[in-house]
Amino acid sequence: MSNVKVAVVFYSMGGTNYQLAKWAAEGATEAGAEVKVLKVQELAPDSVIEGNEGWKATVNATKDVPVATSADLEWADAIIFSTPTRFGVMASQMKQFIDLQGGLWANGKTINKVVSAMTSAQNPHGGQEATLLSLYTAMMHWGAIIATPGYSDPVVFGAGGNPYGTSVTVGQDGKMIEDVQAAVKYQAKRTVTVAEWVKKGNQ
Ligand SMILES: Cc1cc2nc3c(=O)[nH]c(=O)nc-3n(C[C@H](O)[C@H](O)[C@H](O)COP(=O)(O)O)c2cc1C
Fold first, then answer.
1. What is the model's pTM?
2. What spacing in Å lies between the alpha carbon of 199 and ligand 1's midpoint?
3. 170 secondary structure, DSSP code
């Protein structure tokens, strides 16, 4: 049993990033961590969501998932983010959540959090790396320790070979094209391992 606490924080409109978050939670749990799966606050108006069956279904599927708070981040040793690619950057809902952490940041509470990120996009080259970099840029300001998969395990190649973090392509039908489950779980386990090293080194 590791003594690492992991917050898996996601935004999802069509369900993909919710699934990635659940797989990450499985991987982190298997690595012995204590895990919370948390969604970020929705910002889109109800009137827009109402007109989109897939979006409505995701809101319903995630209705019992708690909304992430600063207290959750303070609790966590490691944070795994999952966000759709939106015009080549993270979804605004995720950015809003990050922007709400100014108080945590100002009190030095984001320093040394071990972070890792995942994303999805409709196109194979639709901005996955740029999205992950957009998140990691904010993490550098946090003083967080970014733990990417790199090419540290063959499973990364099998999932499309994104060393920045696991990414998946979502078809027009909303289904994932590559099989990334093993890569997500690997990324989560690696994040737990790095968080263990950091925690131990800090004691
Ligand atoms: C406003 C908007 C912008 C998007 N921008 C991109 C993009 O830049 N590149 C891309 O490949 N897909 C883009 N997409 C598709 C989403 O990335 C895709 O639907 C998402 O990854 C699915 O994740 P989810 O099921 O968790 O919502 C965009 C979708 C929306 C609604």
1. 0.98
2. 35
3. B
